[in-house]
Amino acid sequence: MDRAPAVLQGDVGAGARVIRWLEDEDPRGREHLARLYPHTGRAHLIGVTGPAGVGKSSVVDIIITAYRARGLKVGVVAVDPTSPFTGGAILGDRVRMQRHAADDGVFIRSMGARGQMGGLARASFDAMLVLDAMGYDVVLVETVGVGQDELEVVSLTHTTVLISAPGLGDEVQAIKAGLMEVGDVLVLNKADRDGAHQAMSQIELALHLREISAPDATWRPPLVAATATRGEGGEAIVDALQAHRAHLEDTGEFAAQAARRAYHVFVRVLGDVARARLLDEALIRADARALIDEVRARRLDPHAAAATLSAALRIGALEPLS
Amino acid sequence: MAKTPPIRILLAKLGLDTHTVGVTVIAHALRDAGMEVIFSGLKQTPEMVANTAIQEDVDVVGVSSLSAGHMRNIPMLARLLREKGGGDKLLIVGGVIPEEDMPMLLEAGVSKIFTMGADTRDIIAYLQAWRAAQAVAAPAS
What we know:
Strand content of chain A: 5-15%
CATH architecture of the largest domain in chain A: 3-Layer(aba) Sandwich
Radius of gyration of chain B: 14 Å
Low-confidence stretches of chain A: none
Order of helices and strands of chain B: EHEHEHEHEH
Shape of chain B: globular
Mean pLDDT of chain A: 89
Number of helices of chain A: 12
Radius of gyration of chain A: 22 Å
Number of helices of chain B: 5
Strand content of chain B: 15-25%
Largest interface: A-B, 31 and 34 residues
Number of strands of chain B: 5
Number of domains of chain A: 2
Largest sheet of chain A: 7 strands, parallel
CATH architecture of the domain at 14-43 and 57-69 and 84-135 in chain B: 3-Layer(aba) Sandwich
Oligomer: heterodimer
Structural class of chain B: alpha/beta
Order of helices and strands of chain A: HHHEHEEEHEHEHEHEHHHH
Number of strands of chain A: 8
CATH class of the largest domain in chain A: Alpha Beta
Helix content of chain A: 40-55%
Mean pLDDT of chain B: 91
CATH class of the domain at 14-43 and 57-69 and 84-135 in chain B: Alpha Beta
């Protein structure tokens, strides 16, 4: 059944079904995406990330409220971890956003990461494209609680919101490489808690250090204090998000970023396909099995075996991809 | 498809019923059976639950009901699901449901009612059998 025209008219059921197909790797998902893709590129794509427990979903909730007050339609993709043991998941992010469930201008989709690393699900970006094609002005993606190097979301969005909270041991953490190097808008949530002032100044310091190491940067990330459970801070965060969007448009980065993103996604998808295809072909070969036996018997080390096999497959010396 | 996609289920609490122990136990059991479980949150109207079920494109909506209101809320939810294009979703109910209320709920579109003391394994088996029957009826649907 062709649902692309309904998706383009913003039909919620049709959009939700296409996202389900993409998530389930049903071939109809990609058939539809191919037809929706030319209609994407309008939405402001925003990543919301930060460590577990800082209140990402609650901050998304107040961001939705502030955008709705400005008359913009908001789509949300909220990712939660999938159990690596059972493949099951409890997707609880939308509980914090449920007051928007009766609002036609808000579409919230929960997603299990389904084994994907980097804080997102494999289908998260595809789902954002569907929401973009449906006509949502702003599409937010909320990652799994991330560590310091799981930041796929940065390359998939225009603007990254990095959320922190007092009492996370930030003194060292905030200055460490990784998380603090990203974030176009920084939010300190739970700003009513003890230690909020210290956390604010630590983040300010980290931002200052970032400025010193990147003196040519044209955007200075603002830091916003929020207490999401009291509904405080949403307006200021959306002011900052709108300012960042204006900055991207003024500098031509909005379009340039989109081009980089398209290339990034293309390379990633091609890499996934190529890797799977290559392994499928390589591992059924007779010489591969013989090599595996040698490795199991500890007569040959894994690097040497892989090099031999890759030479036989004529893909050159196998250096691990960085 | 690469592998069998997980069953997606929305667990919902309607109205002023705030008893969450049962629904929490069931959420964990279903997750451990490999399902994706979305929780609606408390104090939901039938309209909010129907909207959520459609946005999340779940296979199943499970309503936990422990403090009455079910004779009004659940038929309204079934009707809203049909009106909003979610008539293909399986609607099940668990909790405190008097025997005499069951025929009316089943008539309204509820497929199965699990009363107090139901074994989570029976709920899982019921959902898996439903999914298997669906796959036979409409392959890749």
